[in-house]
Amino acid sequence: MKQKRLLLHVMPVLVTVLALIILVPQTTLAQTRKVTGKVSSSGNAEILQGVNVLVKGNSRKGAITDAQGMFSVDASPSDVLVVSFIGFKSKEIKVGDQTNINISLDEDATQLTELVVTGTRNTGRTILETPVPVDVISIKDIMGDLPQIDLAQMLAFVAPSFNAVRNQGGDLDSHVDPVQLRNMAPNQILVLVNGKRRHTSSLLIGTTAVGSPSTSVDMMTIPAASIDRVEILRDGAAAQYGSDAVAGVVNIILKKGTNKLTSSLTGGGYLNSGGQAGDLTKAGKPDGFNYQFDANYGFKIGDKGFLNLTGQITQRRPTIRQFVNDWEIYDNTYLNNLRTDKYGRPIITNPELVNALAAGNTTSATSLKTEAGLLSARGLTPSDFSVYAGMPGITMGSMFYNAGYEINANTTLYSFGGMSYKYLKGFSCYYRRPAQTDRFNYLLYPNGFRPQLITNTADISNTVGIRSKLGEFSVDFSNTFGRNTSLISMTNTFNASIGANSPVDMNIGTNQFTQNSTNLDFSRYFKGVMSGLNVAFGAEMRVENYKIIKGQDESYTYGDAGILTATQAGLLVGPNGLPLQNEAAQPIVGADGKPLSVFAGQQITVKNFAANCQCFSGFGPKDERNAFRTTMAAYLDTELELTQKLLLAAAVRIENYSDFGGVAIGKLAARYNIAKNLTVRGSIASGFRAPSLQELNFTHTTTAFIPDANGVPQPLDVTTYATNSTAARVLGIKGLSQENSRTYGLGLTYQPTRGFEVTVDAYQIDVDNRIFQTSFFSAEEVGNHYDEVIGAGQAQFFVNGANVRSKGLELVGNYTQNLSRNKSLTYSLAAIFSQNSILSRNPPSLKVENLTPDQVVEKYLSRDIIGQFETGTPRTKLIGSVMYRQNKWDVMLRGTYYGKITALSVSADDKGNYYDQTFKPQTIFDLSIGYAVNKSLKFSIGGSNILDQYPEILRPENRGFYLYSNYQQGSNGAYYYGRVLFNL
Questions:
Q1: Is 427 helix (H, G, I), strand (E, B) or coil?
Q2: Is 865:898 a contact under the CB 8 Å cutoff?
Q3: Of 183, 275, 326, 898, which one's alpha carbon is 20 to 30 angstroms from that of 582?
Q4: Using an 8 Å Cβ cutoff, are 573 and 641 in contact?
Q5: How far apart are CA 559 and CA 561, in angstroms?
Q6: 317-343 pLDDT tens trace
Q7: pLDDT tens across 292-314, in order?
Q8: What does pTM read for this prediction?
């Protein structure tokens, strides 16, 4: 254990030492020399930053222009430079005797191809030339025209295969927006920053859009203003990048520009019209106001380096979408002052009734014995006790940097990373009503209370590396460190078992995840092999650490507020001589109906008050974890152009996990140019994903709410146990095993005319032993004295629940039409048609006495979880947009279509009919209007879901925490914004 801890801290030092060793100036070939130059637009001589300047036939040799439009590249007189930039016509220039070349590019809005680096280690490929589908999304160009202000939501509204469902409740599930590709789980997508692995959040998300627990990268911690572009590889890439990349890869490319300040200030809010639910909801004032300021600036480091800095400050107010239900607020014991303490002394819960009786006001007294009458007397309404769904309030600050320095023509030092702090406070808990007698205390909360869950999250990351040459090979050596720490707390809560002395604000524990990756990569392009061969190979060492740190004692302990210690032998009676009452005001008697006999010193639980912090129990000593994992990997990645038309790619990767052993996975891909503008491509790959440390070690007690016979959710304490726990072993739950996957892809790319591009890709992903979460097992169901293991609560586990399949068809099309000078229309359409299927459930033989085999199968992987995976999110999603540009004006209109979804229920009526529900398709529209005052100042206004569409409401039997379904556009309604952008 000490050795693993040491590795986390020593590896960055080792990287620095080895970097110094590699810093040996490499001798260049005599015929090559440094060629510099400047690139600008031909129309207005504006300098162009980010232009690709490559040596033709050798894509490993090239440069990108800086903020002054300058580039520097090593080339020989016979070389030809290929200069390309999105929105401009490409140009080829022979070097000859020139050492300084000024290049002007002609604007061409139909030229939309851009070089990509994700999915291929030969960087000379465009979107249409890659053997697998890659989307390139220029964040720096579109963020000013989108209503969305954080990266995950931006991508979700421009790339249909990408998803980031915002959970509008559900404990910690709303504290990170889990990201997905191809309707796969969040932990089956790999996120990179500048090609280096990004660490995930420390929080384990219990409920995702595909029904399985998962970890996810928290993209909100990366400011969008720091990003040049995002490349989304929609293909299995575990053999190339690592075991997480089952569904694909998202590579975030940071900005490099210097001497240019860009910033924006955005403000907006939600209409909060209340939707179409009538009396079930409550229309309120506009809410969810958010404000975000960001700024990006780059500094030159001498003549050969840069430092690009980004800062962002975000303030978001919560959105509150009330569900005004008719659940019982005050029960009969509360209304009629029938409750007692553990000593049998009466508790006055309705003093208004006492006062009315004392005054002889029988009319008022009769009214006060009803729920409506007492609410009226206290100036309350049912809406004060409603469930609050909605987005949490967030205050966040973040800073990112990207830096590089050219030591010589072949060697560059680079570093990037950032830090962020996020304070999040959400309404993700049920209101605790006075009728819930085991979770109530009149002195603290006479009318009940609504707990709120808070996280304070600190996130840091840093990469240091060196790129150089060893002979003819390019080498990249780097170390990446990342840590995400979430301090979790509750406010407006208490521990009922402690009583009125319980704190109402509690620290309930800390989750922390740390990851350190060291990578060594080599590559070489062989120009003379066939039509070109690129070979890349390398190794990775990764050390991970997951911690659960306990909270304060009161957040997880069981107090003595309901425990009585008998002072003398006798009967268990109160001052009135009657039997003491339990928390439900029922007399505590024996089988004969008489008071119980007790002996002196005996401890009796009179009131079975709920232990733990309400809504979300604290992490206690039994939950604490400090788990480590080490992963070693090596890969070989090749691309061979057999001819100018046929490209073959192959990759193999060997990984060894300290806790899961070794595995070998591979990938084959090909691309064939049928015609100049028509290409067919395909791939086949195998994958392997070991369970995350969070999945293996997470354990916690929380409060679930299960509908009773009247459909009213009632609290139930449930503990998630690790699969290596006693609770798992006694039941027969096996330890988690790895997920094995197979991915198949086939696609076409078509460019009928310049500026008109279409790609169509079909895929199928099979995953064996997909990890899901079981339903609840009670001691009564299991038998075998299971209560001695789990007590009065219930248990659930992470299990390899099923073999699954995801398949679909993706369509992406773009067309830019030049109308006249300075006028253009850009059309885009993107769609995904997908299907998820459970191929087979994999329940082991469990040691259960009181359930049938069919009931065990249903508990192991329940009907509602299957429904969430197969039909619970839209299997069809279409995004169509039109962008009109004229001089200083631009207008964007975008429509997003969400296909129908079906939610399956585990509850049924007395005839066995399940309470399933199908929700019809939904379409929402976004609008943005921008006006550029000059090159330095631009204003834009617009909105998302501008027609204020709400989903269909849930049928009465399924209304628990939510009134609306959460898995199409959500229930926040219309959002409108204004933005000012500076470019100095």
A1: coil
A2: no
A3: 326
A4: no
A5: 6
A6: 999 988 999 999 999 999 999 999 999
A7: 999 999 999 988 899 999 999 99
A8: 0.88
